[in-house]
């Protein structure tokens, strides 16, 4: 069920239709800054969330222009301050544009979320697939490849030195020479790391096991969490705007129930003036009192563990709106089938307890005919457990206070800093919350008013 209205009730057509739609607003500039900061701190899902909201409100062209401006700004500041790290951020933003816009297009057209997931997971699949299946041995990396890199660096240095022959080099030229030397040292240091040297000598199935049970699990977990969060956050961005559109449509039908100041602010939004108000959500009634504002006193426990609100209720500006319908993906209430989760946990646990350590797992996958089955099942089980942990993270975000959310974030970084067991400590902590949600429905997936 979708709604589409042409003119706001209680407002003149000349005021709302003939006036130009102002799209370049302070809010849009703030969004650009927010996207840039999100990329700097590598919170990619938050950047996608903001871009998705801009696309839902103002259109895909504005969202694309915003990302191009952010990328260009990184390039300009990088050139201005002679910083390769800032320029690299511009490259990352530019690289992310086709993936972001493809996911936004699929969400806007209400295609199945698996299509967007296949797009947003492509970088992770290609990267870890390259690590696993590239037939590169340590002897090649430590010999031919490293020698070739050293020769290329030496050639670049000679070209640069020839440019300032007979004169004193500038500060920028000296910095560039130092960067070449640093890059050469970094290559030597990376190849000298024991874990890297061992990884390069593994076969494909051993490498996959290393990414699940070994030190590579940290990078694998981060890549999966970012990719899954990207899919969820693009849906959240559109869902928030769809709910706001439903509120606008309801206020249009009942303008006398709201203050003139509220309606004027609401109808002045660029989204409303451009008549981008189609939504699958239909509000049928509202109340002026928010949920949970009764006479009961909040206990200390209630202040830490937030009460649930029904899934068919929108809280906005002191009003509660009851609605029908739901967003296209509805990933807010997504949960994996419990038997699949239990099977994944059982398989990973069995592998860990049966073999005892990484070395035993790696050696068992060297010549056995069942190595492909064990390796692929390990990867798929790790993916399922990561989704379970993400469900637990969202449960914590939805139910606990802001103070406790920050505490859990602090715990996340502490556990993640433990290289030996950090990834599985994170999966165990948040996965346990995700499992308990299946029993107690802490997210309120089935709650209706």
TrEMBL record:
Keywords: Membrane, Transmembrane, Transmembrane helix. The chain crosses the membrane at residues 27-50, 62-80, 86-106, 113-133, 208-233, 336-356, 368-389, 396-415, 421-440. It comes from the Bacteria. This is Uncharacterized protein. It comes from Fluviispira multicolorata. The lineage of its organism: Bacteria, Pseudomonadati, Bdellovibrionota, Oligoflexia, Silvanigrellales.
